[in-house]
Specification:
The complex is a heterodimer of chains A (about 325) and B (about 350). Chain A has about 325 residues and is α/β, with parallel strands linked by helices. Chain A is built from 10 helices and 12 strands. Chain B has about 350 residues and is an all-alpha fold. The longest helix of chain B is centred in the middle third of the chain and has 39 residues. Classes of the chains: A alpha/beta (about 325), B mainly alpha (about 350).
Chain lengths: ~325, ~350
């Protein structure tokens, strides 16, 4: 087979033309300055995401998946070294907007964020209802009563009892707090919601509840999700597409149906093999070694050192190869 | 809303009761200490005895009586005099009477001191001084509070900048006490530059028009307020800036940014508002230590306030005035704490009394 180096944009199937993509990310780089050197947290990541699709971003801790989310959301720390590439959301190049226009035109109007279900995402001294309604007051100039009425509607959708809106964050359980934040994210009916490990601090029952609500919301609100998670099982509930990151780079981006059955990249295969399944009896695998440092990453394929299929070509940087059944993966094995 | 008011009310009443109890205990301790545990009574008793001996001995009509008759008369006179002074009851009973009189601000007559209007009623002496103290320390406290909050917020915005590092390195300037800066400022502005008065409350003789009077008072307030300000501003700037920095790295601040709030709204609702409770607490501590330090500072500036009064009363061993000014100080402290507690409860919905925290 001929070697094909095709950008992800052209390869994901059932997306016939580019204008239908809600989000186009190309050559995104996000490097941080630290005392030890420059950390390449997101290195040359490109992908596209269609409307009403949900994308799960998988990877282990420190692989850059949260940095990818932060880069799209433009919630960046002070120690930025490089922040370059192109992020086109709904036809608007986000990188060309200054902070003020980004705040007024993008934040929460088109792009919402649900952080980890931590204690702290809600202001302790403001009522939950006000915080849920606040984006409408700020961005759309609604008066308080109207905004609160809308907040009640959204609260019903996410399964948050309406009288909880009158409470403070410390009076809510972890799951209810997370529902409040999801309500907040939905209230302006944004195009894209980025969920950063939305259920990882919750117990399994609450996790399942929240995931079900998210599924229901997706149908009712026509939103697009990017779900950042390390929990492969949870991601399979919601994802239409899966993007796997390793050491700051994209290694595979595939339709979920194909990915969960036959992941293409060796790292993705190993990742899937480490997840217990219910119906078959299998020995769980782990990947020996650890991810490379992002300060001076090795040349060529970053997974090569831990990869059982390593061969000479792995010393070169693999391009994105398109896959049968849709998707791309960056591995020289797929060149044959 | 109603629930909130109920919460505030119950909080307020429980706190007031506890503080009242503290004040009562404190006043009783002051009474025992100021009377030297009853030793003051013995001193008074011997004073009375001496007085009676002198009058009886000096009375020519009684000269020819036999010693036993004289003794009987002396004993009777002494008993009458003691009863007049209330010394016939044991100290414990009398200390409780003092306590009730103290709590109700009924201090009786001063032994030696008088008010400027000439009265020797302790209550009048105290009431004459109280407004001066409130004026001076109230002004200084509020000035320090608002200036610190404003500039601490500004510094936290410019974390790591030159001005931020400069103000942090100036924090040790708050180590010397207020009166030290007082003496320094008096030397500089009164003695050397001769711009401002050495001390006192108003020019002598006091100006006749109200405007001139007010201006003169302000002129006399500049140095004491300035020395309080210099002594406190650097440490409060440093610690409050740190509070703001800690609170601005909270997740909800980032969330507010993601929501697209303007940086002013973020600063007001998501940084300043949640940081106010700890700031109010540290302000309360500051105010309480200021009330205490007032004695020396008011003396340095010859400011006719309660602190100066207490200093003079101790010099004259005037027990009723000592007890009286301490009681007033006790009440001032309690009211300060109560007000700030109340403010704290109003600012932070998490403050509740006794109620189990739902979480």
């Amino acid at each position: 087979m001929a070697e094909r180096s095709i950008s992800a944009k052209e390869t994901v199937r059932d997306q016939p033309n580019a204008s239908q993509f809600l989000l186009n990310v190309s050559n995104l780089r996000l490097y941080f300055k630290t005392t030890k050197g420059v950390v390449q947290a997101v290195d040359n990541v490109s992908f596209s995401l269609g409307r009403r699709r949900s994308l799960a971003v998988l990877g282990e801790s420190g692989c850059g998946k949260t940095s990818l989310a932060r880069a799209i959301l433009r919630l960046l720390p002070r120690n930025i070294h490089t922040f370059s590439g192109e992020i086109v959301l709904d036809g608007v190049d986000l990188m060309k907007l200054d902070e003020e226009r980004f705040r007024r035109e993008i934040r929460w109007r088109k792009l919402s964020f649900v952080p980890q279900a931590a204690m702290n995402a809600l202001n302790p001294v403001l009522r939950v209802g006000y915080q849920v309604a606040e984006p409408l007051i700020v961005h759309f100039g609604l008066d308080r009563d109207e905004a609160f009425k809308r907040a009640e509607e959204v609260a019903r959708v996410v399964g948050l009892p309406v009288d909880f809106l009158n409470r403070y964050a410390f009076e809510l359980s972890g799951g209810m707090r997370q529902r409040a934040i999801i309500a907040m994210a939905l209230i302006t009916r944004p195009e894209l919601i980025i969920l950063d490990e939305p259920t990882s601090a919750l117990d399994v029952l609450t996790q399942a509840n929240i995931m079900n609500s998210l599924k229901k919301i997706k149908q009712e609100f026509d939103v697009t999700y990017i779900l950042i998670t390390h929990d492969i099982a949870t991601s399979s509930e919601l994802a239409d597409e899966v993007l796997v990151m390793y050491a700051g780079q994209l290694v595979e981006h595939s339709p979920a149906a194909r990915f969960y059955k036959t992941p293409a990249h060796p790292y993705a295969q190993k990742l899937m093999a480490s997840v217990p399944t219910l119906r078959e009896d299998k020995t769980l695998e782990f990947i020996p070694g650890q991810p490379p440092s992002l300060i001076n990453p090795p040349k060529g394929c970053r997974f090569a050192q831990r990869c059982p299929y390593r061969f000479e070509r792995c010393a070169e940087d693999p391009p994105a190869f398109s896959l049968d059944g849709g998707g791309v993966a960056r591995c020289w094995l797929l060149a044959r | 809303m109603l629930e909130n008011l109920k919460r505030l009310f119950s909080y307020f009443s429980v706190r007031s009761f506890l503080l009242l109890f503290t004040v009562v205990v404190a006043i009783y301790l002051i009474i025992i200490i100021a009377n030297m545990g009853g030793y003051m009574d013995k001193i008074k008793e011997s004073e009375i005895m001496e007085q009676v001996y002198n009058t009886v001995r000096g009375n020519p009509a009684l000269q020819r009586l036999s010693p036993s008759e004289l003794r009987a008369i002396l004993d009777k006179q002494i008993e009458i005099a003691k009863r007049q002074a209330g010394l016939d009851k044991p100290f414990i009973t009398r200390s409780l009477e003092y306590l009730i009189r103290g709590i109700t601000l009924n201090f009786g007559r001063a032994e030696q001191m008088t008010s400027d209007s000439g009265s020797n009623q302790v209550r009048l002496i105290l009431l004459e001084r109280l407004p001066h103290t409130l004026l001076l320390w109230g002004t200084a406290d509020l000035l320090v509070f608002f200036v610190s909050v404003f500039f601490a917020l500004a510094l936290s915005r410019r974390y790591g900048s030159f001005i931020d590092r400069l103000s942090v390195s100036l924090a040790p300037l708050s180590t010397p006490p207020v009166w030290f800066y007082g003496i320094l400022l008096i030397l500089l502005f009164a003695s050397f530059l001769r711009l401002l008065p050495y001390g006192g409350f108003v020019d002598a003789p006091p100006p006749s028009t109200t405007l001139a009077y007010v201006l003169s008072v302000i002129k006399h307030m500049i140095l004491p307020v300035l020395s309080v300000f210099i002594a406190l501003i650097f440490s409060s700037l440093y610690s409050w800036r740190t509070f703001f920095l800690i609170y601005s790295s909270e997740d909800y601040v980032e969330m507010a940014k993601a929501k697209g709030l303007s940086s002013r709204a973020i600063e007001r609702r998501y940084i300043l508002r949640p940081t106010l409770p700890p700031i109010v607490t540290s302000f309360a501590m500051m105010m309480i230590s200021l009330w205490m330090g007032g004695i020396v500072t008011e003396t340095v500036f010859a400011w006719p306030g309660l602190g100066r009064l207490l200093y003079d009363a101790i010099q004259h061993v005037d027990t009723p005035v000592i007890v009286g000014s301490n009681v007033i100080y006790g009440y001032l402290l309690a009211i300060t704490v109560l007000l700030l507690d109340f403010l704290y409860a109003a600012l932070d919905p998490r403050v509740r009394l006794g109620g189990a925290r739902r979480s």
